[in-house]
Amino acid sequence: MKDYLDWTERKGIWASSTPSPLLPTLRAIVQAGICMGLYLYLSPKFPLSRFSEPLYYEWGFWHRLFYQYMSGFTARWKYYFIWSISEAAIIISGLGFTGWSASSPPKAKWDRSKNVDVLGVELAGSAVQLPLVWNVQVSTWLRYYVYERLIQKGKKPGFLQLLGTQTVSAIWHGLYPGYIIFFVQSALMINGSRVIYRWQQAVSNSVLRSILAFLNFAYTLLVLNYSCIGFQVLSFKETLASYQSVYYVGTIVPIVCLLLGNVFKPARKPKAQKAE
């Protein structure tokens, strides 16, 4: 709110002349156009109605899994469009200006309203990265006002804090079964990804570390697109039917990772002693 008031009253970073918002606005508009174009092209090819058609259940496992991936991939472009066009509106107003970079020469920053990093989502190396690149403003709010407040003093955050945060997010989206299932799934997904990341950081062999990094990427790709079916179809029956069609693989894999994480715990690196 303070930033908004400063902007309206021409205070703070807006007290002096600000750079032209034309180019960053055009960039956001072009991105929005590409996103909408891809959505309009892909959505007829991968309709959500297919999940309730007999044809879908006649396909083999890998075909159904691929369709789930493409369904999630297609749906995301709609949100990319919405966030890109809203970002353009904030930038052109001048409110999107956040100051100057520390580079030489300094460059204007217009990321106040940035809500998504498209490549960051589609190429996420870990599910832990997703809240940092998807619906960024809401994720930031949830972190500060829900997640961090659930952490007990003197204790490290765990699965329950993450689950509580995701449950609040589900209720905020709406009381549809698909939302609840998706956000519970997302808590499992993020925690499972943390386990793989800890293994990745614990190994010293570069080849093994690269393999684990790829596994984390593949894990994120699999579980995200499996889970988001619930976010799209919303109904309890259709969500479970789509999950069952691929043998609940996106639920079983995170649970297995969590169980293995309790068995194979990477050794903690010793803390560096302070020089006397």
UniProtKB/TrEMBL annotation:
It comes from the Eukaryota. GO terms for biological process: lipid modification; phospholipid biosynthetic process; triglyceride biosynthetic process. The keyword Secreted does not apply. One of its GO terms (cellular component) is endoplasmic reticulum. InterPro entries: LPLAT_7/PORCN-like, MBOAT_fam. GO terms for molecular function: acyltransferase activity. The chain crosses the membrane at residues 80-102, 170-190, 211-234, 246-264. It is a multi-pass membrane protein. Keywords: Acyltransferase, Membrane, Transferase, Transmembrane, Transmembrane helix. This is Uncharacterized protein.
